[in-house]
């Protein structure tokens, strides 16, 4: 039964560490009647919602969708019209590869008020957690943020363009396409370009692999890295104080070979 005005707040849950949630996000959750949350949103964050709030998992993984996007859109609207304030909790920032704009547009088509609370994106936060500054004076003056896999399950054509640049390249949702990604950089004669892969970044399950374009596939195999992970390609990886010893040790092994 509706006991408050229909409203949808799209909340960015951040990169994984619940302490990286914004204060505005906490305030929004505290007023939620219903929370629809993704697989990449840390479930500890749900503790900020009232105990009486309805919690609905709507996460999507490759080959395993709790709901389709159309069904999620309809759930948002139905719950807002029935209960009032719906918080749609999405990993990272809802407008960076999160289909947040689609959900806002659908809710607004029913005359429902919408609010967006930005989140700290994993694009910058996850590399930063390993001391990687994706821009650095004298090293990298810009960066690409690219989805590795498009909505039709193909490799993004932007990756081939990014491989031609001197910018740092940060790829999300790319682990299943990693061999193809590496091939594109090798074609640009960038076999020695540093690469870092960070799985479950900023969480207690975080795993890191560091190498070069030519060697990273073997590193991934040895360390059993998988999704969800951020792929960072660029000289800034070599500049990380946190990874420097690890990287130098890796290079010394390469020389011995």
TrEMBL record:
Enzyme category, top tier: transferase
Keyword match Methyltransferase: yes
SUPFAM superfamilies per record: Tetrapyrrole methylase
Domain named Tetrapyrrole methylase: residues: 7-215
GO molecular function: uroporphyrin-III C-methyltransferase activity
Gene Ontology process terms (BP): methylation
Family: Belongs to the precorrin methyltransferase family.
NCBIfam families assigned to the protein according to its UniProt record, in alphabetical order: cobA_cysG_Cterm, PRK06136.1
This protein's name: uroporphyrinogen-III C-methyltransferase
Gene this chain is encoded by: cobA
